[in-house]
Amino acid sequence: MTTPRISRVHPLAGVEGGRVTIFGEHLCTVELGQVTPHFEGAESRPLVGSAGKMIVPIPEGATSGFLQVAWPNGAARGPFFEVAEKLADELHPVANPVVDREGWIITTFSGSRGQAAPNGVSVFRIPPDGGAEPYLSDLMNPTALALDAAGTLFISCRNDGTVRKVSGPGQTEIVADGLGIATGIAFSAEGTLYVGDRSGGVYAVEPQGSVRRFAKLPASVAAYHLAFGPDGNLYVTAPTLSNDDPIFRIDASGSVSRCFEHLARPQGLAFDRDGTLFVAAIHRGERGIFRIAADGSATLAVAGENLVGLTFDGRGRMVLATTNAIYRLGWTGS
Question: In terms of CB atoms within 10 Å, which of 8, 204, 298, 299 comes out highest?
C-alpha cells in the first residue's frame, strides 16, 4: 500500500467551522479505506476528498497542534495548525472589536436595527482570559468602536446616527449626531474621528466637535468598516450584493481610489504592527481573513465563517469577531 503524505496545508490558522485545504499524495484512495483528518483534540470529516487534496472543516473542540490524516492502519502528520481560542459567545458584533490598554477586549451586542439588546446590555468587556462582562447598557444598535489617543472609548450607533464617548462608569455622552446610518469609525493620527455613513459617505468629526462631509462612497448593505493605514490614508470596506467589491483608499483631501478589488462581502479590516493590511472577506471561493500584500495580492491567512471584524492586541495577537463570538489567535499574523 502506498503511504499517504501531507505536503502542505492552506491556510495554517483558522476558527472552528472554517474550511482548510490539505494537499498531498495518496490522501484518499480505495486502498486506504476510511480517512479521517485530525486536529488536536478533535477529528473532522472531509467535505471534498481525492488523492491529492482534501477540504475539511475545523471541528468544534479543536485546539492548536499538529494536523494529521489517519486511516485504519496508520497516520500521516502535517504541519502545526493554529486554532483560534474562543473567548466569549452569545454576542452580536457587526464590526471590529477593540483592545484597551489593560488588554481587555471590548465588543457589542448590536442587534438588528431598532432591536434592543437582551437584558439591556449592549457593550461587553472581555478580560484577557475570556468570559464577557457587562460594560454599557441601553444603547440602541451600537455598531463600531474606537479608542482615541487617551484610551477613551467611542461608539457609533446606527439606529440614531450618533457617536458617543464613554464619559464615566456606565455613562456615555453624544459627541456628534446627524451622521446618517453611522457605522465604522476610526481616529486619524491628528485626533479627527472619521465616521462611515453606510448610506453613502464618510464624515469627519473634529476634536472640538465640528462635523464635515469628508468623502462620498457607494451605499452599503451592511456596516462600513474603517481603518487608518501607516501611510496616513483611510481604508474603507463597504459590502454590497456584488461579488466584486473593493477596499477603498481615501487620502487626506477626501479623494477616493481602489487599493484592492474582487472581494465578496468585505467587512472588518485592520493593520498589524508591521503595517500589513488584513480584511475579513470572501475571495475566490475562500472565506476568512485575507492578508493583502504590498504587490496587491491576497492570501487567505485565517480560515473562518461569518467573520465580521478583527483587531490586534498589544502583543500583536489577532482578535477575531464572528457574528456571535470573539476569538483570539496566539499567532501574531507575521
Answer: 298
